[in-house]
Structures are given as C-alpha cells and as structure tokens.
Fold:
Amino acid sequence: MTIPEQIIAKIEAYDTIIIHRHVHPDPDAIGSQVGLAEVIRNSFPTKKVYQVGSDTGDLAWLANVQSIDEATYQGALVITTDAANSPRISDDHYQDGAYLIKIDHHPNDDPYGDLNWVLPDASSTSEIIIDIVNDSQGRLQFNDAAARVLYAGMVGDTGRFMFDSTSPHTMNCAAQMMTFDIQHAKINQRMNEITLEQAKLQGYLFDQLQVNQHHVAYLVVSQATQARLHVSAQQVHSIVGTPGRLRGVLTWVTFVEQDDGAYRVHFRSKGPVINELAKQHAGGGHPMASGANAADQAEIEQIIAELSALADAYQAAQ
Structure:
C-alpha cells in the first residue's frame, strides 16, 4: 500500500479528524489545511473534522479556524499540513491524538509523526493534497469550498506561478481547481491587494534597502517603524519578495522585529541555496525561500556576513 493509500485508509478509519498547519500561516498553510478539511467533510459527512491553530490574521477572508477542547483529541486522527518541523506547528495539542500524519513539501529534516508524506519538489502542500484526492479513486471528492482554498494555496506558494517550483503538473492542478465555482480572478485580485500602509512600507523598503558588493540586499524593519507606518509584523510579509525585483540582487534578507525584541528573518534567493543557512539560525525552509530567527543586532550582522559569503561562493562557482 502506498503512503497516499495509507493516508486515505486512516481518514476512512477515524471518526474525528483534526488538521493543524504552521504558525503565522500563509495561503498554502491555510489552503492545504482547510482544503483537506473541506474534502473530508464533503466525502464523509458524518465525520467530525476540525481545522485548528492560531488566528489567520489578514487571511481571514480565505478561511478561519475552529476552537476545540482537549478532550476532542482523544482517539482522533491528527494531520499536519505545510508544517516542516514540530516547533512550527500551530497549537501543541497536535501530539494528543491517537495517530499523527505529516503532509508537507519542505525538506523533511524533522520527520515527526507516525506517517510522513513529504514531497520537496512539489510547488506547494496544496498541490500534494490535490494529488492525494485525485489518486483516491473517488474515495475523496473535491467541492467548491475545497477547490477555492487549494487554488489560493498554489497561487501563494508559487508567487503567482512565477517560481521555479511551478511545473506543468502545477498548472494542470490549478486548471482543475478552476473548473469549480471558485471565482479565481477575485482570489488573484485579493491576494494582490495591499493596504495603503503596506504601500507606504514598500516606499520605506526602497528608501532604506541596502545592497552590498556581494549582491546581497537586506532590510531591518523595527518595531518603531512598524508603529510609525501602522503595519503589523505579519503585514510586513507583503514586502519580503520585493527586493528580488531589483536587477543585480542575487539574494536578500528581511529582518522584522517582533514584540519580544527578537527578529523574524525572511531569506530569499535567485541562486544560492539558503535553507542550510536558515537552519543555523533556528529556521529552515525551501532552497530559495526560508525563514529563521535572530536574537539581536549582532546576529543580524552575522547573518548578513554569512549570506554574503554564500553569495560569493555561488558566484565563484558559476
């Protein structure tokens, strides 16, 4: 029995299914989590299916979470989607079920759970969910609600189908979701929108962004700047990809100060593999897009130096 077949068998076997995703959710985290939940609800109306975790913030228009008590986990199947490592899973109760399945598309550096289905070459975890449903021989069925969020998950994690991870198969999956009543143009428009405050943040980025001789761009967004521009740390994510539009920038990093004074670190790259560097700073992710953490200014400077050395080595090898 293949792993997808085992996943489907477990879904069929359990009456209560609880689905988690990672903290600070992006469209793929929500799309894969809620998309799978909607598929199971549609396919097995008598099952109790819950999507849980922290608030979805600015993505509440896409979907939201449910609150359940600890007793619900007794004898339940728990599935995590798009959560690469256990510290990033939103809500620690994921450990309290009877059986745990991990479905993800990040490198499997933390193979937690009883069953793993991890495909790092997939464009998104939403794409993996679509494949599981398509391979189920009709045991699992899409509906409009599932297709809507799964489509959004693919759009989000492929950068609107611009990233290298976008394959012909990805486009076929997107086309399949578009056959449902999902209003895909409205989804694309909503995902492209930013607030006036975020637009001003874009202006701040271009004014304050530093690009060194190693073709590394970097920006620090302090708590004071967030307050002055009236943006949250989560809203700062809207500018993370912007430095990559600049000609001559090879790799870039954004440091976003959190409430506790530490920094959330967003790595992006056009060539150098940066996820190993992210792992050295309590993070990880994809080869060209990763996240990490920095405790203070000294670690910020260390990361910039390490990223510069990485960029130099990459350019020397070309």
